[in-house]
């Protein structure tokens, strides 16, 4: 008995059919690749850095099965870490300086205001780079102060403050966070013993100290703390007790942490146990108290 006409169940696929299937597969892969890229971008914008499968499925209008396939691919590529019911970035994403200026502005303003109040007339200050330390520069009201800084943001602010002498620490500029670091900056600081060092942080941890994005930044931050009589770390609550970084500067035996009053109490207790004098500030007070900042248009 002969085979019926037409394509049987075991008939080999034609070249044209295979080409059509390949085209569909490529289109699906392109769509999937774009969606996975968008998932990573979305993870970078949420405060917690984590999302559930349900949130991702709803956001992109796809099934849970599709989301799980995307997450498996991202996990294989080591972009994400699987959590119970969802995913998180493998490490904290580094935002651009513009993005960081838009985050936790009220908290940074309150922290910077309190830090600047500590500075007496005629003081010598080391001011680390960062968006929080930039607020220290904005609120600085001491007469005849000298500021050594590696932060482009702080430099721009202090250009408008005639009562402050600014010394720019030299070295290599890292554009993404507008930070200068390197051997030249370290060499300059070896000749300084400052009254205060205001230190920015990507994270603050009781065991490791203060985190930086690069080894160069970490080396300079460590030296800044060694070359000052009073060390003040300025960091909002997101930075407290996070250990997802590779480069750390140890804190001295006694130091001060200024953070906002929503910081985790347990984490703060652990920092106090290793020598931190913790001071909490209220962002709401900073928002309701009018002020004219030196270096800012009135």
TrEMBL record:
Which domain of life does the protein's organism represent? Bacteria
* Region described as Disordered: 1-25
Q: Which GO molecular function annotations are given, in alphabetical order?
A: DNA-binding transcription factor activity
Q: Which CDD domains match?
A: HTH_ARSR
Q: Which Pfam families match?
A: DeoRC, HTH_DeoR
**Which keywords does the record carry?**
Transcription, Transcription regulation
* Domain HTH deoR-type: residue ranges: 34-89
User: What name has this protein been given in UniProt?
Assistant: DeoR/GlpR transcriptional regulator
């Amino acid at each position: 008995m002969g085979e019926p006409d037409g394509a049987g169940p075991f008939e080999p696929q034609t070249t044209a059919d295979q080409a059509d299937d390949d085209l569909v597969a490529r289109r699906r892969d392109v769509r999937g690749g774009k969606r996975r890229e968008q998932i990573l971008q979305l993870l970078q914008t949420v405060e917690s850095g984590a999302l559930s499968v349900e949130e991702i499925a709803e956001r992109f209008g796809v099934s849970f099965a599709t989301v799980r396939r995307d997450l498996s691919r991202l996990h294989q590529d080591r972009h994400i870490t699987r959590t119970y019911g969802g995913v998180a970035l493998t490490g904290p994403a580094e935002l651009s300086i513009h993005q960081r200026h838009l985050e936790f502005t009220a908290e940074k303003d309150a922290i910077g205001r309190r830090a600047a109040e500590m500075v007496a007339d005629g003081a010598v200050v080391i001011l680390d780079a960062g968006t929080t330390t930039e607020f220290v520069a904005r609120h600085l009201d001491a007469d005849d102060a000298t500021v050594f800084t590696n932060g482009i943001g702080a430099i721009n602010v202090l250009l408008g403050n005639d009562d402050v002498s600014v010394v720019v620490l030299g070295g290599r500029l890292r554009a993404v966070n507008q930070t200068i670091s390197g051997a030249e900056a370290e060499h300059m600081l070896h000749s300084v013993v400052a009254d205060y060092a205001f230190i920015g942080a990507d994270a603050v941890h009781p065991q490791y100290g203060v985190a930086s994005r690069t080894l160069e930044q970490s080396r300079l931050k460590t030296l800044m703390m060694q070359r000052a009589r009073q060390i003040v770390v300025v960091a909002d609550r997101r930075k407290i007790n996070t250990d997802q970084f590779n480069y750390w500067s140890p804190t001295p035996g006694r130091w001060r942490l200024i953070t906002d009053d929503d910081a985790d109490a347990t984490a703060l207790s652990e920092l106090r146990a290793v020598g931190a004098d913790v001071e909490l500030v209220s962002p709401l007070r900073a928002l309701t108290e009018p002020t004219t900042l030196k270096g800012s248009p009135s």
